[in-house]
């Protein structure tokens, strides 16, 4: 096959530039490894702009799953920072220069944007401004930015398949480290609960946070196994993911995550098991087996000496009372983003000498964003659940023709969102990745289904005629003018 002349010259220029960089680096730098890295920079830049979805999803996986903290060899490479620069560059290029990405607005974005504005305004008004500013700039701003980028980038069936695969593979990687730590007694909390990266102060160093990270990819892994026509590789990937993720979640001994897991399997069971009596009986038995297998009762904080509430449950009740007190004292904007912990002493009904986390997504949002922010957060969550249900109805109606990748992504996003809602009642997830990544998938799938099938509110409708562009209108007028002559 003959290569076009412009392509030949482009390849020659890239090759010459790479060789020149190698020569300059070799002359000026004593370490050949540095020369090699510099030499591949042009190729890396080209790769970044040719695969924007991959770049953005890599950033999400590293930031959400903390892969660089789980694997020490990656920690010094500053991969999340490099990927963040690449993702922003790709977004700017594809929106404003290449115009290959067309941002759109859906009704789900409205309560989300209002909630983000309230959180942003509340940062300088927070009770601990440095803490709120640091978390906003280092974590939350990246989360909300990636929500919009992922929602706009996932536009084709192959994009959804890539996204689901990367989420499941990242979950398997974290599960592997958790299982290894559990078997070797590394970083255990309360002598039995597994953690990752506790020595470097990783967010995975808390077993509850680790369990929330592990739970999210489980819903996609189950979808791989249960969805028809997914292929051998995807089904095997899902099966491996289920086994490893379940083992790792049980090793965290998190009651909140256990409830989330049961809700995910319960929803899939209700969807796929025809005999509902068998489903109810088998589900109840499976729940008891999971509780015993997790060994929750063996946790030190899950034991009570007087037959009343255990230490963990009592602390949660006090934490929730403190959250209500914070929202009552600061009803408009709350105590500020990530400021619950520093305000615990002032609002807890019982001080035991230590500050505690809120251990609830809902009470955490209430305390840190106030009553107004809490209302819009609930509105956002309900809207996402409704959109996920509509997506599911559309997928079921077109099951014969729709891509398995879209079906897997649709089910995984909805089940993951519901599982997050259940486990989030006992885990602090209001300002972390799971809810927002699930939201990005739900929104992008809804837009894809509307573009492909004209689906709204679970019913097929005819696609609305697109408004002609200015250029098309000008051509039509010129054509009409010629016809009159």
> What is the typical, i.e. mean, pLDDT?
83
* Tally of alpha and pi helices: 20
DSSP helix fraction = over 70%
How many domain modules? 2
Overall outline: globular
Low-confidence segments: 304-308, 457-465
First and last CA, distance: 48 Å
Write down how many β-strands occur, each being a DSSP E stretch of 2 or more residues. Answer: 2
Beta strand % = under 5%
| Helix/sheet category | mainly alpha
Largest sheet: 2 strands, antiparallel
- Our Rg estimate from Cα atoms comes to 25 Å
SSE arrangement, N to C: HHHHHHHHHHHHHHHHHHHEEH
In order across it, which strands form the biggest sheet? Answer: 1-2
Describe this structure in words.
With 485 residues, the protein is mostly helical. It folds into two domains: 5-39; 42-299 and 311-460, no CATH class. The protein contains 20 helices and two strands. The chain has helices spanning 5-28, 32-39, 41-50, 52-65, 67-70, 72-75, 79-97, 109-122, 129-153, 157-184, 207-226, 232-252, 255-272, 276-294, 311-329, 340-347, 361-397, 404-423, 433-453, 470-484, and strands at 455-456, 459-460. It has a two-stranded antiparallel sheet. Strand 1 and strand 2 (459-460) form a beta hairpin. Helix 8 (109-122) runs antiparallel to helix 17 (361-397) and helix 15 crosses helix 17 (361-397).
Keywords for this entry:
single chain; 485 residues; mainly alpha; 20 helices; 2 strands
């Amino acid at each position: 096959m003959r290569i076009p002349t412009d392509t030949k010259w482009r390849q020659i220029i890239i090759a010459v530039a790479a060789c020149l960089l190698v020569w300059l680096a070799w002359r000026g730098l004593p370490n050949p490894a540095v020369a090699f890295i510099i030499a591949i920079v042009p190729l890396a830049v080209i790769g970044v702009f040719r695969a924007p979805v991959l770049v953005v999803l890599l950033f999400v996986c590293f930031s959400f799953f903390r892969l660089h903290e789980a694997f020490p060899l990656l920690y010094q490479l500053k991969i999340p920072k490099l990927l963040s620069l690449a993702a922003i560059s790709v977004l700017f290029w594809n929106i404003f220069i290449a115009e290959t990405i067309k941002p759109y607005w859906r009704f789900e974005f409205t309560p989300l944007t209002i909630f983000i504005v309230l959180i942003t305004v509340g940062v300088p008004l927070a009770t601990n401004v440095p803490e709120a500013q640091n978390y906003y700039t280092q974590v939350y701003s990246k989360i909300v930015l990636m929500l919009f980028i992922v929602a706009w980038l996932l536009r084709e069936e192959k994009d959804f398949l890539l996204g689901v695969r990367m989420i499941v593979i990242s979950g398997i990687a974290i599960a592997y480290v958790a299982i290894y730590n559990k078997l070797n007694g590394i970083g255990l909390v309360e002598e039995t609960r597994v953690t990752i990266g506790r020595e470097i102060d990783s967010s995975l160093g808390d077993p509850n946070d680790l369990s929330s990270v592990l739970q999210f990819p489980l819903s996609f892994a189950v979808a791989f196994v249960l969805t028809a026509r997914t292929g051998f590789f995807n089904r095997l990937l899902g099966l491996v993911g289920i086994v490893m993720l379940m083992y790792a979640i049980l090793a965290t001994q998190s009651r909140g995550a256990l409830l989330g897991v049961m809700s995910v399997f319960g929803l899939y069971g209700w969807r796929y098991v025809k005999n509902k009596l068998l489903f109810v009986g088998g589900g109840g038995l499976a729940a008891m087996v999971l509780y015993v297998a997790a060994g929750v009762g063996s946790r030190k904080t899950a034991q009570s000496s007087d037959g009343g509430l255990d230490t963990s449950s009592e602390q949660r009740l006090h934490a929730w009372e403190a959250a209500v007190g914070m929202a009552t004292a600061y009803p408009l904007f709350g105590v500020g983003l990530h400021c619950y912990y520093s305000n615990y002493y002032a609002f807890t009904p019982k001080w035991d000498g230590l500050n505690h986390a809120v251990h609830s997504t809902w009470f955490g949002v209430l305390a840190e964003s106030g009553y107004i922010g809490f209302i819009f957060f609930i509105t956002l969550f309900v809207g996402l659940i409704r959109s996920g249900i509509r997506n599911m109805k559309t997928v079921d109606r077109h099951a014969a023709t729709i891509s398995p990748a879209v079906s897997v992504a649709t089910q995984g996003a909805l089940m993951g969102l519901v599982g997050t809602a259940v486990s989030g009642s006992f885990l602090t997830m209001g300002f972390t990745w799971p809810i927002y990544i699930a939201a990005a998938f739900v929104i992008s799938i809804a837009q894809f289904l509307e573009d492909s099938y004209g689906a709204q509110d679970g019913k097929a409708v005819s696609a609305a005629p697109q408004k002609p562009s200015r250029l098309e209108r000008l051509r039509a007028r010129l054509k009409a003018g010629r016809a009159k002559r």
